[in-house]
Design a protein that fits this description.
The protein is of the alpha/beta class. It folds into 2 domains: 236 residues, Type I PLP-dependent aspartate aminotransferase-like (Major domain) (Aspartate Aminotransferase, domain 2, 3-Layer(aba) Sandwich); 103 residues, Alpha-Beta Complex (Aspartate Aminotransferase, domain 1), CATH 3.90.1150.10. 35% of the residues lie in helices and 17% in strands. The chain has 9 helices and 14 strands. Helix 4 links the parallel strand 3 and strand 4. The chain starts with a strand and ends with a helix.
Length: 356
């Protein structure tokens, strides 16, 4: 049976990236060594790293004055590193979900945190608007896509202070005006590669900001002075990122990817909106292109488990909603083909025809 991978992360990757990574594990470019065995100081890995950074710069049109580095620890470590490096007196945060809350929690260890707006009052089903960013904040932190709740900030906002964005789950899903951000970061395991590597795009004038002493490994300048090579980087994960970036370029770049993502999301949201049985959980003007959340209407709540089992018989993997939302979640990241989304829509329609 064909499987349709809707997991929220680690998640689907381009098949060619998986296949080429598997080949490199056996023999990297015919050098007689596995990708897993090469030195991170070798010319072979340096070539991998250089091309990965170059493709990041090209695909996101990153302007001069920024550096791309790869770190460990996931986005969760960045929640700590960001205030450690940049928070002197006060930082501003937008609270749009669990991951934003975790970032806020870490920030409070280092100074005053001003939560400028929150959508917690409605279980994070919308993106707040109409708030003011304090002009005396050291930075303003946002989470652009909320995997658990299915909301997304799909524009590049203007900020009077340095803007920092966690783009773990929507990086490379749309064109981004990087010049509006002081830093963009995220775990790779949604749109970019396997778990184990974190990307950081950082403006160079942010590198010396904090008044405090910071441990060597937690200082961004450590990793920019010896780009991604101060300590042993996650070689395999970076290589798979490279293969994914090559795939994105081959399809026509980020604009082409965005068009594909819009088509997939419109297909599924349209099915949800027309359904007698299913209903979306997010305000329409805040809906994510990456994580589409929906539940059964009240009169059909008792059929949720039955639909989950039915979907499994159709090859659907990973559509169970997060426990804090319930229902269902289809993660339609870059590598998800529209045919998989159509298969889910067909399963929903078939189940509804039988049960509604």
């Amino acid at each position: 049976m064909k499987k349709y991978n809707f997991n929220a992360g680690p998640s689907i990757l381009p098949r060619i990236a998986v296949e080429n990574s598997a080949k490199a594990i056996l023999d990297l470019n015919g050098i007689g060594l596995s990708l897993l065995e090469i030195s991170h100081r070798s010319k072979d890995f340096q070539a991998i790293l250089d091309e990965t950074v170059a493709l990041f710069n090209e695909l996101l049109n990153i302007p001069a004055g920024y550096q791309v580095i790869f770190l460990g620890g996931g986005a969760s470590l960045q929640f700590c590193m960001i205030p450690y490096n940049f928070l002197n007196k006060k930082a501003a945060y937008l609270e749009t979900g669990v991951w934003a809350q975790k970032a806020i929690k870490e920030g409070k260890f280092f100074g005053e945190v001003n939560v400028v707006a929150s959508s917690a009052d409605k279980n994070f089903c919308y993106i707040p608007t109409g708030y003011a960013i304090p002009t005396d904040a050291d930075y303003f932190h946002i989470t652009t896509n909320n995997t658990i709740y299915g909301s997304e900030i799909r524009y590049d906002m203007d900020s009077p202070v340095p803007l920092i964005a966690d783009m773990s789950s929507d990086i490379l899903s749309r064109p981004v005006d990087v010049s509006k951000y002081a830093m963009i970061y995220g775990g790779a395991q949604k749109n970019l590669g396997p778990a184990g590597v974190t990307f950081v795009i950082i403006k160079e004038d942010m590198l010396v900001k904090a008044d405090r002493k910071i441990p060597t490994m937690l200082t961004y300048s450590t990793h920019t002075k010896e780009p991604s090579l101060y300590n042993t980087p996650p070689v395999f994960a970076i290589y798979t990122c490279l293969e994914t970036l090559r795939w994105i370029k081959s399809l026509g770049g980020v604009k082409a990817i965005e068009a594909m993502n819009i088509a997939k999301a419109e297909l599924l949201y349209d099915a949800i909106d027309k359904s007698r049985m299913f209903v979306g959980t997010v305000a329409k003007d805040s809906r994510s292109l990456m994580n589409i959340c929906f539940i059964m209407k009240d009169q059909y709540k008792d059929k949720e488990d039955a639909f989950m089992e039915f979907a499994k018989t159709k090859g659907m993997i990973g559509i169970k909603g997060h426990r804090s939302v319930g229902g269902f979640r289809a993660s339609t990241y870059n590598a998800m083909p529209i045919e998989s989304v159509q298969a889910l829509v067909d399963a929903m329609n078939e189940f509804e025809k039988i049960n509604a």
